[in-house]
Amino acid sequence: MAKFTEQLQQAGGPEWLTAKRQESLDLFTSLDVPSEGVEAWKYTRVDVDFDALQPHPKRESISDKAKLPQSVQKRLSSTDAGAFLVFDGPDVVYRTELPADLTAKGVIFTDLKTAVEQHADKVQQYLYSVVPAEVPDDTTIAAPGTTPSKSPDPSEGKFSALAAALWTNGAFVYVPRGVEVELPLGSFRVMSEAGTYTATRTLVVAEENSQVTFIDEQDSDDLPGTYAIGAVELVVKSGARLRYVSIQNWGKGVTHIQRQRGDVERDGTLNSLVVTMGGTLSRTEMQSYLRGQGADSEMLALYFASEDQHFDHYTLQHHAAAHAHSDLLYKGVNSDESVGVFSGMIKVDLNAQKTDAYQKHRTLMLSSEARNFSVPQLEINANDVRCSHGSTTGPVDQEALFFLRSRGISKELAEKMLVTAFLEDVLARVPLQSVVKYIEGIIAEKVGAA
């Protein structure tokens, strides 16, 4: 596609990055759009005319916070982030600087485009190491800086290849060995032009025995025919602790496709939370690759699909080393004519003895016209493990509803209370009160209790 080649050339950057972009674009061109024939996309179809895709227009930086979108201003006034970036489409339009004491310790927090220019050695070492375009969800990830194996089913990589080739910007976080960043760092991404697409990439690196929290938020008004495509790479070195929070609240008409993957080394810990509330179609992939012994991954998610929304979550807990632990809890609500999809895999490699892995998915159905597909899976290649998975789908508990109504509470309000309590189970495990409060506000709007 000639226009994509032109966009790639306009992206600029060093030779190694241009070569990687071109390799990814060549792969994208050779692949088909994932269809129902691909197991990982069995229940989700993305109708996209790539020839008609237009990049989101560029935006100028803003020095006055009062000129930012109201939704962003509201969030910035309530966030406890130590520093943050605001993206409008492909460009950083507003930022706050990292505290001087963290800069002095070697912490880097900037946009990825700037990082390529100013911190090329670190970016080149880790970029594309965790989410390469050509690696499927169920294969071994190569060590950072090495070449991963090819996908046996390349149709899975169509959107990842596009994001790898044409990403315009994103956040870059680097925390040196032994440094603890107490306050969260944040990225607020908005889109403001309908009928366009934005490709982004986020790279977070926590070196040995470091600690950091990164909050990644997406928000927009209703934007028909708009696409948000991205990748998130989370590098957790030995003994490091990384908490990653993604809150997707796009407006109607937005198609959201994002692959998030963490690479966790010995005794490292990755805590992730994925919140899906917006967009018309959302496909989020969250994977943890437990590379080292003692690695730990907590994967939390909540979603609320209403009207004609279609939310698809695809997860992987990949245990490649012994004595590692993972725990997944995904909870969702489907109302009206919405569709919810969950496909989760616990994969245990041959030598990953003493694996301890859990997977639980629960869905609350508020409408007989809504649909939900849940596919929990296990692939165990070791003989000394403890793994469990489970999924439940059902309506509001009638006994609980009767109890509330017997106290004089209307049926509508009682249902809202039960939905909020159902999702609160996930939020109770998140120690970020400003984030929890914000998510509770979105939930309240969804159930009509705001």
UniProtKB/TrEMBL annotation:
It comes from the Bacteria. It holds the Pfam family SUFBD_core. Residues 192-422 form the SUF system FeS cluster assembly SufBD core domain. Residues 10-185 form the SUF system FeS cluster assembly SufBD N-terminal domain. SUPFAM superfamilies: Stabilizer of iron transporter SufD. NCBIfam families: sufD. PANTHER family: PROTEIN ABCI7, CHLOROPLASTIC. Belongs to the iron-sulfur cluster assembly SufBD family. This is Fe-S cluster assembly protein SufD. It comes from Deinococcus antarcticus.
